[in-house]
Amino acid sequence: MASRSAPPADVLVPPTGTQPASSSRLGASGRDVLLDAARELMIASGSSDVSLHAIARQAGVTAPLVKYYFGSKEGLLTALVEADTGKSLGQLQQLIELDISAAEKLKLHVTGIIRTYARHPYLNGLLNRLVRESGSERSDRIKANFVEPLIKAQRVIIEAGVAAGEFRPIDPNHAYFLIVGACQYLFATRVPFGNLMGGAPSDDAFVRSYTAAALDFIQRGLGVDPDRS
Amino acid sequence: MASRSAPPADVLVPPTGTQPASSSRLGASGRDVLLDAARELMIASGSSDVSLHAIARQAGVTAPLVKYYFGSKEGLLTALVEADTGKSLGQLQQLIELDISAAEKLKLHVTGIIRTYARHPYLNGLLNRLVRESGSERSDRIKANFVEPLIKAQRVIIEAGVAAGEFRPIDPNHAYFLIVGACQYLFATRVPFGNLMGGAPSDDAFVRSYTAAALDFIQRGLGVDPDRS
User: What fold does the segment set A9-70 form as a domain?
Assistant: First the structure.
């Protein structure tokens, strides 16, 4: 493994003749430049399937920089998931400790999930890919750090709401797949299917109105009394 | 392109020393053997990302057979989508012409979507991949043949239900992503996340109970009066 005491001197210099989208951010740290480049590629392609070389090219740097900072592509992708979910998972932890009703927590939780997927539409596919393609130990660590906290926090909200009579009785494991599925599908398919429905999925106004539509759908699906949410 | 008058004589002979899962079906047509091999790989890995060589190996045949029958991997994957969705799309067309309530159509429709994804959990990822990776003309054909019929049929059901006062008012485009998202997410993530929740997603009983849970959730989400469905 390369020494980590200092980055190679030339790695932050973009190749001449190219004008990558990230070049204006080369003042930021090398790590952030590379994470942003990976995000841009995944958002544009609608897929988490990006190569290390494409990331380096998009960032306007040479490929060894990726290995210098992250060890491997897998290391970069794990850091990306960490950066993209860290704040939301922290807020979710604070949310479940608030002294408000379960229905109110559900509302903030669903809005947060959709905001996260709207910003990082590649996130679900990327997590699936990392869990599938990593060795079992690393795979378990990814699940423990990024997936289980969401499952556990949502379970607390659902169980409290059912116990309080705010939600109808429902298996929290079923609720997890129903809620997250309804929240994430638009964002998982928006790039390939953007020109269907007269182009609706490509329209940012559609995405904005989707948040309210999904919240209404999920609240009703859980039997929330509209006057209590 | 190879002549299509007859398959190469040796292609259906499995290599010695291997015992692929499909070998017992070598009596079936070569096309079906290859489609089944692709299905098995995608179901086991939880991903639509399979190589032409892996498909040939799984089928216990040589790689040229795939090109002989399907022209390319893309040709095989398109044939797979056609085989997996043809019957369901035909039934959906018959369903919307039935003289039953929109709520009853919704129930049959949702049950049909979940049955399709339970049998072919790779289907959504595969369609996204084909649309993303194909040339624009082929990509448009895939959308027109396999995605638009579902969107259109579901729109007819939703609009009829809203007009009859059976469903609450909802944008059919929003409804599409909410309903399909809730139906497909378990199946899209079941392999990588199977050992979460104490192993619930890996349990076939969980999958069976999910159909009823999703139907209830979606009916409530659309404001269906439980006595009318």
Answer: Arc Repressor Mutant, subunit A (1.10.10)
